[in-house]
Amino acid sequence: MATAKTDRRQRLKYHIRKKVQGSSERPRLSVFRSNTTIYAQIIDDVRGVTLVSASSLELGAKKGNTNTEDAQQVGKRIAEKAQEAGISLVVFDRNGYLYHGKVKALAEGAREGGLKF
């Protein structure tokens, strides 16, 4: 049985995805967060392909870092990988999460890294 919190996020996610579509010119930067890690993917929805991905697992847990600091590092890392792949413009998909805390830190890190959205 799903909880009300996950049902609410799923409904929000569907409404967001109606409007936010990634293309090859401007792919979608999708965020997924759990209690311990945060993941980011840059997706071309037309072809259905993940172009670039990064997560806090790949960076390794640094002792003393908070979750928001890790999220900001993931944002910078995804921006680096996107620049290597020739991607500079993206559409930000917060995936039903509030634009606050880890999600906001990831977005700010990606902007610092050079992504525009």
UniProtKB/TrEMBL annotation:
InterPro entries attached to this UniProt entry: Ribosomal_L18 (IPR057268), Ribosomal_uL18_bac-type (IPR004389), Ribosomal_uL18_bac/plant/anim (IPR005484)
Keyword vocabulary terms for this entry: Ribonucleoprotein, Ribosomal protein, RNA-binding, rRNA-binding
HAMAP family named among the record's database cross-references: Ribosomal_uL18_B (MF_01337_B)
A Gene Ontology term for the protein's cellular component: cytosolic large ribosomal subunit
Superkingdom assignment: Bacteria
Record's subunit section: Part of the 50S ribosomal subunit; part of the 5S rRNA/L5/L18/L25 subcomplex. Contacts the 5S and 23S rRNAs.
Keyword Ribonucleoprotein included in the entry's annotation: yes
Protein family: Belongs to the universal ribosomal protein uL18 family.
Protein name: Large ribosomal subunit protein uL18
Pfam family, one: Ribosomal_L18p
Coiled-coil parts of chain: none
GO biological process: translation
CDD domains: Ribosomal_L18_L5e
Its job: This is one of the proteins that bind and probably mediate the attachment of the 5S RNA into the large ribosomal subunit, where it forms part of the central protuberance.
Entries under NCBIfam families matching the protein: L18_bact (TIGR00060)
Gene Ontology terms, MF aspect: 5S rRNA binding; structural constituent of ribosome
Endpoints of the signal sequence: none
